Amino acid sequence: MHRLLIALLAALDAVLAAAGGIAVVLAPLALLWVFGIGDPDWGALWPASAAVWHLGHLVPVTITLPDAYLAATGIDPSFATFTLSLAPLAFAAFTGLFAARSGSRAAEAGSGLTGWLSGSLVFAALSAGIALTSQASLVTSETWLAILLPSLVFLVPSLIGAIAGAWRVGDDGPVDAVRGWIERMPSTWASVPGLALRGLAIATLGLVSVGAVVVLAGLIARASQVIGLYQASNADGVGATVIALGQLLYLPTLVLWAVSFAAGPGFALGTDTAVTPAATQVGALPGIPVLGAVPDSTSSWLLLLVLLPVAVGALTGWILRSRMPVTAGPEPLAPRLVLAVVVAVLTGGVGALAAVVSSGSIGPGRLADTGPQPGPLALTLGLEVLVGLAILLLSPRLGGDEGDERHEEPDERGFSYAAREHVPFDRDEHGTGPTPTGSPTGAGIPHDVWPSAYRDPDAVATDTGLGARGSALGAFSSPVPAVSAPPVSAPPASAPPASAPPASAPPVSESPAAGSSGELSDDEVRARIRAAWSEHGGEPDGTS
Description:
Layout: H1 3-35, H2 45-56, E1 61-64, H3 67-73, E2 81-84, H4 90-108, H5 112-133, E3 139-140, H6 143-169, H7 174-183, H8 187-190, H9 192-221, H10 223-233, H11 237-249, H12 251-263, E4 268-269, E5 274-275, E6 280-281, H13 307-323, H14 333-357, E7 370-371, H15 374-393, H16 467-476, H17 522-535
Helix pairs in contact: 1-2, 1-4, 1-5, 1-11, 4-5, 4-6, 5-6, 9-12, 9-13, 9-14, 12-14, 13-15, 14-15
Keywords: Membrane, Transmembrane, Transmembrane helix
Pfam families: DUF6350
Transmembrane segments: 51-72, 79-101, 113-132, 144-167, 195-221, 242-263, 301-321, 333-357, 377-394
């Protein structure tokens, strides 16, 4: 694809990412301005929408309450100005996913660098435009932060997506150079970098899933408190809709809080407060309905939640172990140990980053400190995931540490018409069925294969029978010595008619060898059988 087209598509992705985030805020606020405010100030709609968008992209927003509002509500004038910095991470998640998709698509089209630069520059320009046009007396933010932080929220995921896309399809540049350097490493170490990144992704996804389950369980267990806070708000339909939408935008933030709660360190809901599985200490909380899911007290059973990150680590270790190359001998310990430590350290780093972006201020005074602490969360997540990884990565395989030895089994068919060393003698003598390929003269047959047409019906199935016929058959069940066939002469002119009784077969003289293979031909075997039947007064067709 042409580079100009790639740049244009990446720029379009940036425009859609910014416009989508703004529209999510602007639409409900416009409804609130129309139906919820008697005499709305339309000049404040855009600054309010931009402030929410900035807050969702990690930009702290300073709010200054007017004096008339302070007088009407009786709020202490010392609380007239405060900072909101707890981000509704749904905006950042939307922008990041959009950016990663854009970068990956540009790389797969053949020009990841062009797409990344184009999209990042366009999004930075849009962020600057929003920041410069949304300043107001009631809601303000630092202009340079309002430009830098949203740009980074787009730039970093776009770069990660571009690198991932180039890794999949190649870029004939630095990514391929790094891939070549990794592939030149020893076979036991070459898979470690890729498995480490895969393990980080699996562990991160697993921890987010754990947080989502904990949030859902809390909402179900304390549904009555959540509903009670909704009723206490006395909001009409429009107000309830805006409150519900705002809580949905904060849902990723709550999930990260739940991850910290399950890991053990918990989170704060104000200065000198803590919500952990071991103990809960909170004061007066804002009347936000979703905060009704925060437990008032704890139970010793909640301590079992710390096993969930360990289980995530074990699952990650099992997946990574199944993708590690199988060696011919015992698996070396060093690559597995390094892989476990690297994945645990990276997971701890992601935990610290999650704590940073999910903490901040939600109001004045004691509400200026909310969310998890980066250090404790990083340490506990890293250790818990490391324990789970070690269980599966450092233990022997279920089948032992021996390499898989797979042998190709020959294709042995049950029956074939191809030529073979021995051909069963009891084939269809009358040509009513398929005739297998015969052996050359002198190949002979096995001694234990006898024509069914020449068996005595009265003889038993064993090699030794009763009577003369059984004895004769038992004698011929032993290996036949090699004999030489007599010369075949032309039949005499006065041959007996077909109805005459058959004459006894001429005796067969023995010879030290018969043919090159030392075995009898089919005609020689038939002659010996007829001679044996003649000596005992029988016929080849079984009549005596």
